[in-house]
Design brief:
By secondary structure, this protein is mainly alpha-helical. The chain contains two helices and no strands. The chain has helices at residues 8-31, 36-56.
């Protein structure tokens, strides 16, 4: 049995949910004084990592 690639819409949905979840934590970090650019970088990295792990599992 060969794995089938995920449809593009599914990956987009996973990325949106991951960004929303990471964005909540990022908002709290920025409110406590973290640099917004650093916080945005962390958010993007964690969202991409979550989608990649989701694709593997």
């Amino acid at each position: 049995m060969t794995p089938t690639p995920s449809p593009r819409g599914e990956i987009t949905g996973q990325l949106a949910v991951a960004c929303l979840g990471a964005g909540v934590v990022t908002s709290l970090a920025v409110a406590q004084g973290q640099d917004p650019c650093t916080a945005l970088g962390i958010t993007l990295f964690s969202a991409l990592a979550a989608v990649m792990v989701g694709q593997v599992l």
